[in-house]
Design goal:
Length: 331
């Protein structure tokens, strides 16, 4: 049986091919699964997708009509999949419920440190042999307050690094993490966390309850000189509201590895095209904003775990087994 994998990055392709070589043939495509590309999957019982795939009702119906019975997504998040339609169509849907939390947590800290110490501006200057320090002043993070919104595995890893910096720790989540509390974290209401934190980092999944969790009111509740980091899902932040606050000169820095309208942009080369997204175009012009292209998970360690879990999902489907990765079971 040949498996069709959409949205495969160049670094990812040899890992996927190696992982599947003793089990199934795999055809890797660099194009992402969308309504336009879905017909390519006709005749493939198993399709693997990337985090930015479009798996709404119409795409799922196209896949089902072409004979696809399993969608194996190579990510933890699944907000891009209409699970109700998949269930109605009798399709099995699986994801990767776990991979290295350190990959994302460490990258979140990379963003935080980069905007705090003006690394991008400094690097750009030194390429031009401009070695002035004007405008590059940062702040010690030791002794300041880190607010962690979402204290699951990734939030816990982020918290451990914050503890290493000697920061005061505030947390907000639906359930308290004992490991974070052992590090000295105090769980508080979200409004208090936003008001008192010098650094706010987001580590919650995107779902209807968390859509625009950081809205205009939440942004206004934050300190004027705070740092905001999002390495989770773009929809957690109301980007237009964020742009409005940035126009007012607020925030020491904002580090974003995700963007709420990133589909059709991130993972692609759009450097020779006019960007029609005015919000993103405005966002990247602010000198205190750093935007990266959803790469927090992109380490060799994490990718190997993601690919290995995807292989297990395929093998489980073929054997009629069900694991914690299954979102919609085989009907």
């Amino acid at each position: 049986m040949e498996i069709l994998a959409f949205g495969v990055q160049a670094d990812e392709k040899p890992l996927i091919e190696h992982a599947f070589r003793d089990h199934h043939e795999v055809r890797c495509l660099d194009v992402f699964l969308t309504e336009d590309t879905a017909p390519i999957a006709a005749g493939y019982e198993i399709v693997s997708t990337s985090v930015n795939a479009e798996l709404g009702g119409r795409v799922l119906e196209t896949l089902a009509a072409g004979g696809t019975r399993l969608v194996a997504q190579r990510s933890t998040g699944f907000n891009n999949i209409d699970l109700h339609v998949a269930e109605r169509l009798g399709m099995t849907v699986a994801r990767v419920s776990y991979y290295s939390p350190h990959a994302v947590a460490e990258f979140a800290w990379t963003l935080a440190l980069a905007v705090n110490r003006r690394i991008v501006r400094a690097a750009t200057r030194t390429r031009d042999f401009d070695f002035r320090l004007d405008g590059l002043m940062g702040r010690d993070l030791h002794g300041r307050t880190a607010g962690v919104i979402g204290t699951g595995k990734i939030g816990e890893a982020f918290t451990r690094i914050a503890h290493g910096f000697g920061m005061r720790l505030l947390g907000w989540d639906v359930a308290e993490n004992p490991a974070c509390m052992e590090l000295g974290m105090k769980y508080v209401h979200k409004d208090q966390l936003l008001a008192e934190s010098d650094l706010v980092s987001l580590h919650v999944p995107l779902m209807p309850q968390t859509q625009h969790l950081i809205d205009a009111a939440a942004l206004k509740a934050m300190k004027d000189d705070a740092i905001l980091v999002n390495s989770s899902r773009g929809g957690l932040i109301d980007t237009e509201a964020l742009v409005a606050e940035l126009r007012e000169g607020r925030f020491t820095g904002v580090g974003l590895d995700v963007y709420e309208s990133e589909a059709g942009l991130f993972f692609l080369d759009r450097s020779l095209e006019a960007i029609e997204d005015d919000t993103l175009a405005r966002l990247v012009t602010f000198p205190n904003v750093l935007v990266t292209s959803h790469q927090a998970y992109y380490t060799e360690d994490a990718l190997r775990q993601i690919v290995d879990a995807t292989v297990r999902n395929v093998l489980d489907y073929r054997a009629g087994r069900r694991s914690e990765n299954v979102l919609v079971p085989h009907s």
